[in-house]
Design brief:
globular, homodimer, binds 3-isopropylmalic acid, 10-stranded mixed beta sheet, 2 domains, alpha/beta, about 40% helix, Isopropylmalate Dehydrogenase, 13 helices
């Protein structure tokens, strides 16, 4: 019997809807396995800006920092995207949260679902059996470097900065993961142009001797953007910088056929955070049509990391069951019968 | 009857082999249409480093700057890639060449070949009829910003800088192209994080009023990395920054099923340059197995830009004929009969 305090950050757009379903599923798990989950809801994103003028309020940070884990929906709102002059943006909250919680590694597994493999835009033989993990650096790089304007606003700049220790701690996670898997690690960078990429390469090369069993390769981001689609099975663990990881992880989601399925965790030295890789999808907000599975599978990753393996497996089992039986939202229904977000959540919970 | 001076930069790896075939094809065109092509070979890349210690020697620049066009192979050599301490790199030559020749826009069309559509890792219905152009900014951004090390080499940084005029001149080309096509322009950036992207968005938004017929959309690079694979037919003209364009153009090449087919041009205020989008592919160098079609089709773009439309069409016709008749290199042969690089070149030339 475990007692878990989980911070619950629903966020914007479809965030609250998908989070609701994950809560139902976790509560069903808690009931079945006699755990006690104490949900701690907190504001973030555009919702927090509207309420308190800040996308990641201190109060929210306190709740997250003191929780055993954070379950996160999505943030972002279109009214900020096309307004270059907006001073406070929902995404700043996300970045501040990552930084203040020290979530330096974003872990995004990419795999296929047997029952959904034909939904992928990619041919079956290219993707069947794909099982790779992208480890994206999450608290450094161009996301956190100095940026600004010069020349009366006519010049804008952003700085991609990496320190050796930032690369080392991310790479260490990558090597450790590779050791538990196929012992293949690929460092993705742009070392033929960028100095920060050359520091990545140099640092990872220096660590190779500590992991003599791991086969390390170095590839350029442009080549990987291509090869990841051509032959995803060629990859096992990929480590990469923040911006490159942002691009590659979204790209990798097409392999599974749907962003609506892919979970992620963000880990650091303290608490870890679990979130679907999709965004706030504002067009669908409030319509009860969003696919909750990525968030539900993120909760499975949470249990997994808490060494509650059976609980994690139970969630994956019920998700696979819903896919196999076609109890899915419209994005997966192929024009056939589909169910509401909330109906899928209820179904999953009642099948646990 | 035209008299053309074309600078010929074979470069490294398979560069010389594929360039040779393009020369054969162009010479056959010149003969058929009674033109006079004066080839001006010049050194570049690792080949130039070995010869004169410089990847883009002044002499090469003189030849390019005074030519009517530049035909370029590929540069890059693996002995530099894994040596973070190398002071002179072949790629610097490429970047210096782009900058000194003022080649601020890289034009990369993405289309499918009817006879090759099943070679793509993507399903036929997703890609059939794809016809998009990525316009990549080529002389600015993080490729040319200040970079270096600090803290005894333990911190490395690169700067992504954009000036309004750089964005404007690239966007203008994008708007003009869109006007000649489906009047759809997509600006790809990361404006939810980067200040330079916000300047892109602001600048392009400011130009919309001059092109009231063009429908402009703004999308994030991570989303486009996904959607480009999911539904390439959703795009017409894409404009984007140097680094994002590097990634997206290589990624887009999987749509056609092979990098070995995709041509590109780099245009500026003075001379233009034509090159295949593939790299120097060192593993294949000297083996007479590389696919020369991307370079041959780049020569077709060259004629097109010189308003020699018939000549360009003739090259495309003969390339399509070679594909239809299976007179192809091994990468396209699907285990069937294949031909050498030089044989394909000879065949193309003799069919003109
Ligand atoms: C919303 C945005 C700032 C964010 C990012 O770029 O990191 C998102 O794309 C993600 O990947 O979590
Ligand atoms: C070789 C490299 C520097 C170059 C680039 O990144 O621009 C290449 O990838 C390209 O796209 O032409």
């Amino acid at each position: 019997k475990m007692k878990l305090n989980i911070a619950l950050l629903a966020g914007d757009g479809i965030g609250p809807e998908v989070i609701d379903q994950a809560v139902k599923v976790c509560d069903a798990i808690a009931k079945k396995y006699h755990h006690d989950i104490n949900w701690k809801p907190a504001l973030t994103g555009a919702a927090a800006i509207d309420a308190v003028g800040e996308p990641y309020p201190d109060e929210t940070h306190e709740i997250c920092a003191n929780a055993d884990a954070v379950l996160f929906g999505a943030i972002g709102h279109p009214r900020f995207d096309n307004d270059p002059s907006a001073k406070v943006r929902p995404e700043q909250g996300l970045l501040k949260m990552r930084q203040k919680l020290g979530l330096f590694a974003n872990v995004r597994p990419t795999f296929t679902f047997p029952s959904l493999i034909d939904k992928s835009p990619l041919k079956r033989d290219r993707i069947e059996g794909t099982d790779l993990i992208i480890l994206r650096e999450l608290t450094g790089g161009i996301y956190f470097g100095e940026r600004g304007r010069k020349d009366d606003g006519n010049t804008a700049y952003d700085t991609m900065t990496y320190k050796r220790f930032e690369i080392e701690r991310l790479a260490k996670k990558g090597f450790d993961m590779a050791m538990k898997r196929s012992k293949k690690l690929c460092c993705v960078d742009k070392a033929n142009v960028l100095e920060s990429s050359r520091l990545w390469r140099e640092t990872v090369q220096g660590m190779e001797k500590d992991y003599p069993e791991v086969e390390v390769t170095y590839e350029f981001i442009d080549a990987v953007a291509m090869r990841l689609i051509q032959w995803p099975k060629g990859y096992d663990v990929i480590i990469t910088a923040n911006l490159f990881g942002d691009i590659l992880t979204d790209e990798a989601s097409v392999i599974a056929g749907s962003m609506g399925l892919m979970p992620s965790s963000s880990v650091g030295s303290k608490v870890s955070l679990y979130e679907p890789i999709h965004g706030s999808y504002p067009q669908a907000a409030g319509k009860d049509i969003a696919n909750p599975l990525a968030t539900v599978l993120s909760a499975a990753m949470l249990f997994e990391d808490m060494n509650m393996t059976e609980e994690a497996e139970e969630i994956r089992r019920v998700v696979n069951k819903s896919l196999a039986e076609g109890y899915v939202t419209e994005d997966l229904a192929d024009g056939g019968k589909s169910y509401k977000t909330s109906e899928v959540g209820d179904w999953l919970a009642s099948n646990i």
